[in-house]
Amino acid sequence: MRVRTHLTLLAAAVFLPLILGSAIAISLVLDAERHAVQRSMQELARATVLAMDQELTAAIASGRALATSVALHRGDLPTFYDQARAANAGSPRHTALLRPDAQQLFNTVLPYGESIRAPTAASRRRVRAVLERDRPVISDLVIGSATGRHVVSVELPVRLADGSRMLLDQWVEASHLNALLPKEVQPSWMVTVFDRDASIIARNREWSTHVATQPQADLRRAIVSGQDTVTTEGRDGEQLVRVLARSALSGWTASVAVPAAELEATAGHAVSLIAATLLCAVGLACVGAFLFSRRLLAATEYLSAATEGMGEGWLPPSANLRITELNKLQAVMQAVSTRLIRTETSRRRHLAEVQAARSSAEAQNRAKDEFLAMLGHELRNPLGAISAAIALIQMGVKGEQADRAHQIIGRQSRHLAHLVDDLLDANRVLSGRVTLAPVALDLAVAVRDAAMTLQGATAEHWVELALAPVRVLADPTRLAQIVGNLVENAAKYTPAGGQIRVTTRSAGGMGELEVLDDGKGIDADLLPRIWDVFVQGKVVSRAQGGLGIGLAVVKSLVEQQGGSVEAHSAGAQCGSRFTVRLPLAPAEASAQPGTTAPGSDAGTALRGLRVLVVEDNGDLRDMMCALLQSRGSTVLGAADGRSAIALAAQQRPVLAFVDIDLPDMSGYEVARAAGPGRHPAGGGDRLRPGRRRPACAGSRLRASPEEAGAAGRTGAGRFRDGRGGPD
User: Fold this and answer.
1) Which end of the chain is more exposed for a tag (fewer CB within 10 A), N or C?
2) Sequential DSSP letters for 115-132
3) Measured distance CA(571)–CA(574) in Å, rounded
């Protein structure tokens, strides 16, 4: 037998198993490449669904927040319209409020009061279905009544305080959802989002042409039946492989379509590479099997090492394998490795964002828990003192001990009332419901007057006032609150003997108030969050208390008066500086005369008046009546709204204290039903709904001269006024 025959047989013996193995390898490579592309398609489809769900979740959250609006529940639609526009500011969302008959009362895309066309029959059916389900519903693609453009909406049923029902829509234009589609997509890949009715909502190619159209019948059946992968024929006759992903939130379907020919292209390259390699191997086997085998072995070892590197997430270095097909395979591996690294980097970034959001939520939850703990601490001490004093009185003690117990009850009750008032006032300020009365005033005088009242809080500190006259436009009462919160905050975080410097000046066309201390300073991680409610650092002394709302109130009050506030600290133990900027008063503006503070003649003013007390809490009603009777008033008591209205009609009281939360109706309804003009002889009657308070709501209680003198002696801080020596 010839050598050629032997070589041929040897080649056949060598290459026949290789050919068979290559066929198997080709099949495996083909399947692997298909699966890799399909996994990429699945990830892209899931990312598309996630992008849509995030936008819809944000719409649901903002809609639920708006549904709690006090203005909405009391029927103040202009105010609620402004709140909705403010809530949607900076986002693509708009708000519409619909009656049960689907007629829009307003739509924030239009000015308030502009007429909106009547709803269609389909809109009425949709609204009726949402109200019957009584839970938020995400719509399919619809035509907006106000814009005439394609939109989707999150529809939330709302039940108002009077029992009536409304529908609150948070809607987004389909063009915005289309902009949310992933940008890094292969040019030949087509990403589409269908609603529950299989209408096209978003499409990464020719969206304006295909929006709201229906897909072909085979794709529609796949969407309706819930298939994950389907091969369909495109509109141009091209075979497409589609991967479908569905949203559990909206019921929408995201489709990623890839031409079938492209899906097979990678495997085709692999087949060509292996075939060419085999042909080269057969030809070279006759002239240099050993050299070729060694070269092939070296190339195989390199590709094996490169494959292992891809699995570990690093790019293999480029090398000349001296075999064209293997170099092409290397280029493909480089591209795949780059894509894998990019995908892993994106995944880690998303994971970091999720972890950051979780950390923020946990921090907010801790702040809430710390606030509740602080509130419990602040309430427990006065309640304990009151309980002990009451127990002492019940034991029948007399003389100085009984007087001391009464003083403790009065002082701790006022402390509790002060805590509750602070919380209620903070709620009004932070929600923007406080009424401001800005006047032209001298910032230096206002700050000096406010600082002098804080000598008790700063008794252990050196306080320096460097006050230059500057006229600003501000509310005097709220300005005093701003100064008090800042100075008390400085004292709370400054050890005894520390220095606090309060400065006023004019700078940059604004009036500036600066509170500087040499206390413990503000940590860098806490500095961006100090304006948040319930956030505060570790105080020097727990006895100084605080609920973590003072700085949030300061920021809200300053910004509501057209100013700004900022905080600066170089770090721990480096002190802190708070700077408030307020607008300067116009040159022609003059300060309005201040109102006289209520004096000790409040009791005289009530003498001889007929007063109505409406309160369902029997103990509180009895105490209020007793207090008013001690002031010389004729007092009438009622436990509910209807009896109060009847009593007012018979007795025509001059003044009334009405609890807002009554068992049968609200205090506002009582005031409207029995207020001025309701009774012929009651033109001067005044019915005022009030909040629950430990003492008589609406009365003004002042410390006795002896208590005031004692407070002045024990709270005298060390002040050094910029005008001269210590005050």
Assistant:
1) N
2) --PPPPHHHHHHHHHHHH
3) 6
Which residue shows structure tokens 């970091």? 352
Nearest residue to 367 via CA among 209, 526, 156: 526
Q: Taking the mean position of all CA atoms in its chain, how far away is CA 468?
A: 40
Beta strands 655-659 and 686-690 are parallel
What are 653's two structure tokens?
């009281």
Higher pLDDT, 150 or 359: 150
pLDDT digits (tens, 9 = 90+) for 128-176: 999 888 889 999 999 888 888 999 999 999 988 888 899 999 999 999 9
Q: What are the residues whose beta carbons fall under 8 Å from the beta carbon of 408, sequence distance 6 or more? A: 385, 386, 388, 389
To which residue do tokens 């009750």 refer?
A: 413
Q: Judge whether 631 and 603 are in contact, CB under 8 Å.
A: yes
SS3 content of the chain, % helix, strand, coil (to 5): 50, 20, 30
CB 427 within 8 A of CB 458: no
C-alpha closest to that of 479 among 516, 436, 508: 436
- For the sheet containing 718-721, what is the strand order? 564-568, 576-583, 510-517, 499-507, 462-467, 718-721
Taking the C-alpha atoms of residue 257 and residue 194, their distance in angstroms, rounded to an integer, is 13
What span, in angstroms and rounded, lies between the C-alpha atoms of 279 and 236? 39
> What's the Cα-to-Cα distance from 582 to each of 392, 483, 506, rounded to whole Å?
51, 13, 10
Please report the sign of the dihedral spanned by the C-alpha atoms of residue 499, residue 500, residue 504, residue 509: positive
Is residue 280 within 8 Å of residue 273, measured between CB atoms? Answer: no
Strands 655-659 and 610-614: parallel
For residues 567-576, give the mean pLDDT: 87
Q: What is the 3-state secondary structure (H, E, C) of 560-614?
A: HCCCEEEEECCCCCCCEEEEEEEEECCCCCCCCCCCCCCCCCHHHHHCCCEEEEE
Tell me the pLDDT tens digit for each residue of 457-505. 777 888 899 999 999 999 998 888 899 888 988 888 888 888 999 999 9
In the chain, the domains with their CATH numbers are: 31-312 (3.30.450.20), 435-583 (3.30.565.10), 607-690 (3.40.50.2300)
Smallest CA-to-CA distance from 430 within 546, 557, 531, 535 is with 557
Output the CA–CA distances (angstroms, integers) from residue 711 to 455, 457, 485, 500, in the order listed.
10, 11, 19, 22
Report the distance separating Cα 443 and Cα 212, nearest Å: 62
Least confident among 104-113, 166-175, 291-300: 291-300
From the number of C-beta atoms within 10 Å of its C-beta (0-12, 13-18, 19+), residue 399 rates as: exposed
